[in-house]
Specification:
86 residues; 4 strands; two-stranded antiparallel sheet; 2 domains; 3 helices; alpha+beta; globular; 16% strand
């Protein structure tokens, strides 16, 4: 069942579809060659409300490295191979 869910997620991955950013982050952490990282200033919205917990870019001095353009094909292949998707 997990394999079927991963396969569905990978086939549905798009900005308008299924969000798999946690999976992308895990893959990037284990294989940095999948995406060149760039410096970026990010902040977390802490004000109570519907946006609370959201990560946002800011104009401050960069405070982290981020993956903005992942190699989608390589990430899908690695996720499928690692998680046993068909």
């Amino acid at each position: 069942m997990a394999s079927n869910l991963v396969e569905w997620m990978l086939n549905s991955w798009s900005p308008e579809g299924v969000y798999v950013w946690d999976l992308v982050a895990a893959l990037q952490a284990t294989n940095p060659a999948l995406c060149t990282e760039a410096p970026l200033a990010i902040d977390i919205v802490t004000t109570p409300g519907p946006e609370q917990g959201r990560t946002v870019a800011s104009e401050e001095k960069p405070n982290t490295e981020v993956c903005l353009n992942p190699d989608v094909g390589q990430m899908k292949a690695l996720a499928a191979a690692t998680l046993g998707s068909r």
